[in-house]
Amino acid sequence: MSGGRLARIGRRTRWCALVGVLAAVVAGCSSGGSADAATVVVRVGYQSKTINTVNAGTLLREQGTFERKLAELGATTGRKYQVEWQDFPSGAPLTAQMIAGKVDIGSMGDYPLLVNGSKTSGFGADRSVLVGVTGYNLRGSLNQVVVPSASGATTLDDLRGRIVSTSLGSAGHGMLVDGLQRSGLATTDVQLLNQEPAVGASAVQADQVGAYAQFVPWPQLLIFRGQAKLLYDGGDNGKPTFHGIVARESFGTAHPEVMQAFLQSVKDTSDYIDHEPLAAAETVSRLTGIEAEVVYLYNGPNGLVTFDPTIKQPLVDALAADLPFLKQVGSAGDLDVAKFVDETALRAVYGAGYDAARASTAPADVLAGTDPVCGMPVGDPRTASEVWFDGTARTQVAATPTCAMRAVEESNGKKVRAVYVPDTPTGTRMFASAATWVLDPAAPPTATLLPFATEAEAAAYLAAHPGTRQLDYAAARAAA
């Protein structure tokens, strides 16, 4: 056989192989990842260590809620449904896999959501759409700046010329830039170091950076472990922050029953967190290695996260307000936020009650009851506190931070896992052990001890109230 004929056969063989590969790819894309005509494969991306998305990832996967609903669907449709879970460290690699057509549904933070939406906006039917929310904080307190425990910094101004670890293009990065601007600083006044959250956390522990600006749960995780202290709360920027769920529009169109089953599962898991927050925290802790006390700070009553799948208008407005920053730093392009939002499946899940649920921002789980130490009703979120004693199935409520400190001191040496108190100026939930305490002798007996999230807040109160004095945690307990 001649060399020319061999060459022609070789070219034809390679072309046939290429056609076969392309055909397989097209078939996979058109079937939404189906293994065969009777099986629908649902590829779900999530971030296991992001507490704000556990109802669409870690906890949802563990409880098998989605799989059970798909099995029920299969009994009706005669089809098989297979779920493939993919864990990611952050929103960026998850978005990359969605762009590659390898993830159908994913959960991520508000900034990555915008990046995802803008990068896929030109994909036609394969563009990403926002189909639900996992959890939110209307103040923005899920993003924070912390500094090493031994740092002398008390305000953002103290970071001039210092290295600040963050993930560029993340909500933590955006929060930091907003905070710097509010403090009269430019981004160039600090040295930004682009690092994944876990890498930056190690840098804080090694005292290699001056500060660390990140999203839930990393700052509070370092605080709880005694490796950092809070310098700036993103809530001071007054901009809502949240995590949400995106899906490939083509997948949702082809399989609306799957999208509805997924979002119903997210709603059911959110309801479980609200009704059994302590058990949920213990489960998430076991699965992620994040201490249950940290998880409970976020998902407990009066917690930092409100778990609610509905897409509320303040959150949509926040997306529109955040987009210019991402375009400025080159992380995102143009995006019509209104068209990015697709509530079709959510409305099918909630029925006629969707608009009312969407309009409500009242937390589903709040601290309530009677304080057993001070004998007072518990209800005011600006003062309601909580003590978690080791070996107990339930936490103990306290009407005020002062009453919580009394509960600890009068517990006959019970081991305390955590004490949760609200920041005096804002009501934001925090660890009592990490607070800066102020003793105000002029206050009522049940309110003489006031916790502050930052040293700067405490200093402002001390300056405005003669006769008050600052205490550390041990002294505050003793003073109770």
From TrEMBL:
Domain SsuA/THI5-like: 139-278
Keyword Signal attributed: yes
Listed CDD domains: PBP2_SsuA_like_3 (cd13559)
Keywords of this entry: Signal
Signal peptide start-end: 1-37
UniProt superkingdom: Bacteria
Record bears the keyword Mitochondrion: no
PANTHER family: ABC TRANSPORTER SUBSTRATE-BINDING PROTEIN, ALIPHATIC SULFONATES-BINDING PROTEIN-RELATED
Name listed for the protein in its UniProt record: ABC transporter substrate-binding protein
Organism: Pseudonocardia dioxanivorans (strain ATCC 55486 / DSM 44775 / JCM 13855 / CB1190)
